[in-house]
Amino acid sequence: MTLDTAPGAAARTFLGPDFLLGSATARRLFAAAGDVPIVDYHCHLSAQELADDRRFASITEVWLGADHYKWRLMRGAGVDERLITGAADDWEKFHAFATVLGRAIGNPIHHWSHLELQRYFGIHDVLDADSARDIYDRANEQLQRPEFSARGLVKASGVEVICTTDDPLDALEHHEALAAATDFDTLVVPGFRPDGVLRIERDAFGPYVERLAHATGIEVAGFDGLVAALEQRIAYFDARGCTVSDQSLEIFPKRATSDAEADAILRRRLAGEPLTARDADDFRWALMRRLAKLYHARDWVMELHVNALRDANPRAMRQIGHDTGFDAIGEDRPIEALREFLGELEADDTLPRTLLFTVDEGQNKQLAVLATCFPGSGIAAKVQLGNAWWFNDTIAGMAAQIRTFAEVGYLPAAVGMVTDSRSFLSYPRHEYFRRIVVDIVAQWVDSGEFPASDATLESILRDIFHDNSVRYFRFDVPLVGGVA
Questions:
Q1: Could you count the other beta carbons within 10 Å of the beta carbon of residue 409?
Q2: Per-residue CA distances from 404 to 243, 388, 390 (Å)
């Protein structure tokens, strides 16, 4: 049976030029502001692969090799793990994904994947089981061309800044190589991610502290030694362009803890004594407070990612490992603890610029309003709600985050979108975000809720899409023409 278009309605082309742009106002604004350079201030791309200018053997390797968003979709359709992270060959994995994708109605991965095929490969066919072989061969043929290397894909995406996610013990030699490269213009800077010292309850903590002490030459027998060693690594990162640290916390610690209490907990842990969950949380509070003060001293941004329930499937974690698509949304309610933590830093003027990310969309308004309680003179939205994260990277999720930010804060100060991705083909997600933002803005204009001043609207959009993140993170790249 053929579905007829309603009388008077024009059928839209799948992912056509007007995708997500519901009015002439939206289309006009997107044409004016939608193609500014990309600033990706939080991702998981490999600096080594960029430094080596990695080439990819197949679209499976570059597209499915490390993308747990796509893996989760395939598992939801019942695909065997052999065809996801197992020993199947590249064609088998691609065909399995194509078979699922062709029917993934309503899932953003259906949009992202087809945008990637269009933008990078010029392939506008719908990927499904029937078209898989032809698209696989056409994409692989193009991947042999020089411009489809890791750096080539970044250049083709119009990416101006990439901020990677790096362990404090990383030598950052690949960032140094990229900074010295004369044939690659994208600014690639490290991001400081101290998971290894925050997760004191893990078996890997003791060996990690030993490596930290060896790398810095500082004895880590107690809390002050640990902080001193981390301060040295922060200085090392700072000298190589780092301006951001990222903390990922399943449960935000609930009790303000003194340095003396943290010292006692650390010494017990290093002596091999068992810790309670309360001990671990108390230690995290004290260490995060000291780290936040070090970030403030360096004028860094502090990202707080909360409420992700990691490794929900224990058997999958044992067999496949961390960060493989088995995380979920937690039920922690961190608002009171965050108020106390941010307030303690604000009280002695050591609160850094802070982004609050949550995977629980229901907490958007709480966090957005809390952020407005900590303004900074001369810094627009010094503390602010981060962009729609992870499971909220959907049309509805992004729209909800944008509307909440606007309703309780100051949307023109928002720092925009990130990929949060390990894939070099993920940059159309920025276009996805921009189309959603532009369409919401156009709705406000067309309904008479905001004046129809293109100059003002274009300036706001350029700020959100580019200039705000450049200012907020102090990236050394030019502004494109938002508010001066």
A1: 19
A2: 27, 11, 17
The two structure tokens encoding residue 143 = 């991947």
Q: What pLDDT does residue 350 have?
A: 98
Q: How far is CA 106 from CA 84, 112, 421, in A?
A: 21, 12, 21
Beta carbons within 8 Å of 482's beta carbon, 6+ residues apart: 459, 460, 462, 463, 466, 467, 468
Contact 469, 478 (CB under 8 A): no
Give the pLDDT confidence score for residue 12 in this predicted structure: 74
Find, among 35, 47, 40, 41, the residue nearest to 151 by Cα.
Answer: 47
pLDDT at 10: 53
Helices 223-238 and 205-216, axial angle in degrees (round to 10): 60
Q: Are 158 and 185 in contact (CB under 8 A)?
A: no
The fold of 56-148 is uronate isomerase, domain 2, chain A (1.10.2020)
Q: Which fold has domain 153-473?
A: TIM Barrel (3.20.20)
- Amino acid at residue number 138: R
Return the exposure string of 134-171: e unless at least 16 CB atoms fall within 10 Å of the residue's CB, then b: ebbebbbeebeeeebbbbbbbeebebbbbbbbbebbbe
Looking at residue 102, what is its pLDDT? 97
The per-residue pLDDT for 6 is: 41
Q: Both tokens of residue 21?
A: 């742009």
| Whole-prediction pTM | 0.95
Dihedral of alpha carbons 406, 411, 414, 420, sign? positive
Q: Which ranges in the chain are annotated with CATH 3.20.20.140?
A: 153-473
Spans of the chain below 70 pLDDT: 1-11, 482-484
